[in-house]
Design a protein that fits this description.
Layout lengths: L9 H17 L3 H8 L3 H8 L7 H10 L4 H27 L1 H14 L2 E5 L11 H9 L10 H10 L9 E5 L2 H5 L5 H15 L8 E3 L1
Parallel strand pairs: 1-2, 2-3
């Protein structure tokens, strides 16, 4: 059985980068684009940096202001719909309880003999340090405060399975995941140090492959 983790924000990041690149190619400043879209400059900035997920209507207004051709406009609106659907799924998980998701993943891992993990924009959960785990589970997208303590504990407990020599794990990591400032620099430094240690095979069994 293969385990393919959720895309965890890839669509949102790709959308933000595409909108930012199109605005730069057009020669418009963020302020001028904001004026054309009847948005604030700070909103445009937050959309382009991925801190704010734009609605489908927001994306359509931006693309219209940038005079994007219909084919590209259709492609990016599809991406916006996917990103917003992902956001709704995250909100549903919050309402249900984030710890239930950890139980689901633990059950899949327990049943699997060979799992492959690939997240293009984040460090894979089984390789995360506690501080990175807390930061990730706190970024739910909801304004209301969420108690993540139980989910954090369960996610960290899942990492014990890496030492089960009856199972095989493969982790494919990207440069983007390492470079994205998902957390404050001090936490990212701790996380990257752990990845270096894991790559050298200091902490894991021979059944784990990190690339």
């Amino acid at each position: 059985m293969s385990l393919d983790p959720a895309r965890a924000g890839e669509d949102r990041i790709n959308l933000a980068e595409a909108l930012r690149d199109l605005r730069r190619v057009s020669g418009l400043s963020g302020e001028r684009l904001a004026g054309r879209c009847q948005m604030s400059q700070s909103k445009i900035s937050r959309i382009e940096t991925g801190r704010l997920l734009p609605s489908i209507l927001d994306v359509e207004r931006i693309l219209t202001a940038l005079a994007v051709d219909e084919a590209l406009k259709s492609e990016l609106l599809t991406l916006a719909r996917a990103a917003n659907a992902e956001y709704q799924d995250i909100r549903a998980s919050v309402r249900r309880g984030l710890h239930y998701r950890q139980w689901d993943l633990a059950a899949l891992e327990a049943e699997s003999t060979h799992t492959r993990h690939f997240l293009p924009a984040l460090i894979t959960g089984l390789l995360q340090v506690p501080e990175y785990v807390r930061a990730g589970l706190s970024r739910t997208g909801d304004r209301a405060p969420v108690d993540t303590s139980r989910a954090v504990a369960l996610k960290l407990e899942r990492q014990a399975i890496l030492h089960d020599e009856s199972k095989r794990f493969e982790f494919l990591r990207t440069e983007q995941a390492a470079r994205w400032q998902f957390c404050v620099p001090s936490i990212m430094a701790i996380q990257l140090d752990r990845l270096v240690s894991l790559s050298r095979g200091c902490l894991l069994s021979p059944s784990v492959s990190c690339r």
